[in-house]
Design a protein that fits this description.
The structure is a single chain. About 40% of the residues lie in helices and about 10% in strands. By secondary structure, the chain is an alpha/beta fold. The chain starts with about 25 loop residues before the first strand and ends with a helix. The protein has 14 helices and eight strands. Helix 4 packs parallel to helix 6. The mean pLDDT is about 95. Helix 1 links the parallel strand 1 and strand 2. It has a single domain, classed as TIM Barrel. It has a five-stranded parallel beta sheet.
Length: about 350
């Protein structure tokens, strides 16, 4: 029998809690409305989207799709943000391909484009993992995450007082060979383009060290490390960075599988750093996805699927709920994001 055919029937008798609405109103600080992640909500009536968020108990959502290009940014500002400004924040992005054209002028040009995006309504900057893995300068050299030439971009964000949502590394297993030792072999088999083995790509540690250098070098700029600071497998390392850099925050989007398989460590980590953690879903405004996250954060349920699919999508394990205290839940659900993103 192939592994993909394995469908065990669970025999464990345990509590199963269904949460329809979160304990407190939620600000979703990491999500997408366009394809492929959001399911095309940018092309549906705004009323349907607002109804979906209302059912989920989400009062405000950060749409990161402006990071894919200024055309998409402007579309979302006009078709979503302008129609419900109190409900949405849209982040902008950087058009890295222009570096090959502009050469040494690129960093200052990019900083000015960010200022222009902000003037049009962008509420932050999204930096994706192409920085560090794919972005190349006008000499065709791979650009490091902490490349000092990019200082004008980070300085501009500091001057504007807006955060940088930065995602520079995927799960550690994505940087390992796709073999019998890789715990995400099924996921990588379905998405081989997510594999970044060295030496074709920088090592995971190289990228994460570059992220830390970047944060340390720009204390006046606020950074949000996406997906538990890009290192949910090592909460000790993420906690050290949160302790050292007051300009650093993280979200917990798309990492319920990692956090839930280490529930004691995750609960302790989240309580200790509860002032610096934001809620995020990262799968579009999907009702079942939100309710799964609420179950994970609010209940002490044991051994449940962290995915909305029959087979866990990131690795073949189940998770346990964190049963977080109310005051911690409220910070993660909305207080931290309200302060950081200046949401009234």
């Amino acid at each position: 029998m192939n592994l993909e055919q394995f469908r065990p029937i669970e025999q464990l008798v345990h509590k199963k809690t269904y949460i329809e609405k979160p304990k407190f109103p939620v600000i979703d600080a990491h999500n997408h409305l366009a394809e492929p992640f959001g399911g095309g909500w940018d092309n549906k009536p705004i009323g349907e989207l607002l109804d979906q968020l209302e059912q989920a108990g989400v009062t405000h959502m950060v749409d990161l799709d402006g990071g894919w290009g200024e055309d998409l940014l402007d579309k979302h500002l006009q078709t979503i943000k302008q129609k419900a400004p109190e409900k949405f924040t849209v982040f902008g992005g950087i058009q890295w391909s222009e570096w090959a054209v502009l050469g040494d002028r690129f960093p200052e040009w990019a900083a000015n484009r960010i200022r222009s995006q902000t003037a049009r309504g962008a509420g932050g900057l999204k930096v994706w993992k192409d920085l560090g893995l794919h972005v190349r300068d006008h000499h065709n050299a791979l650009v490091k995450v902490d490349d000092p030439r990019l200082q004008p971009i980070w300085d501009a964000m500091g001057e504007l007082g807006l955060p940088v949502m930065i995602h520079v590394a995927d799960p550690v297993a994505f940087f390992s060979p796709i073999d019998e030792h890789n715990e995400r072999i099924e996921e990588l088999g379905a998405h081989p383009e997510w594999s970044f083995p060295s030496p074709a790509f920088p090592t995971f540690d190289t990228i994460l060290n570059g992220l830390e250098t970047l944060i340390a070098r720009h204390p006046a700029t606020t950074f949000i490390g996406a997906h538990v600071g890009c290192y949910a497998e090592n909460l000790g390392r993420v906690g050290e960075m949160l302790d050292k850099y007051q300009n650093y925050h993280i979200d917990i989007s798309a990492r319920i599988g990692e956090l839930g398989r280490q529930p004691y460590a995750s609960r302790k980590f989240i309580i200790e750093h509860s002032d610096r953690i934001l809620f995020g879903l990262d799968m579009g405004p999907k009702l079942d996805g939100y309710r799964l996250y609420y179950r994970f954060l609010e209940t002490d349920d044991e051994y449940f699927n962290y995915s909305t699919h029959d087979i866990p999508t990131q690795g073949r394990w189940y998770v346990n709920g964190l049963y977080l205290p109310g005051e911690v839940l409220e910070k993660i659900y909305n207080k931290n994001a309200r302060k950081l993103l200046k949401i009234d």
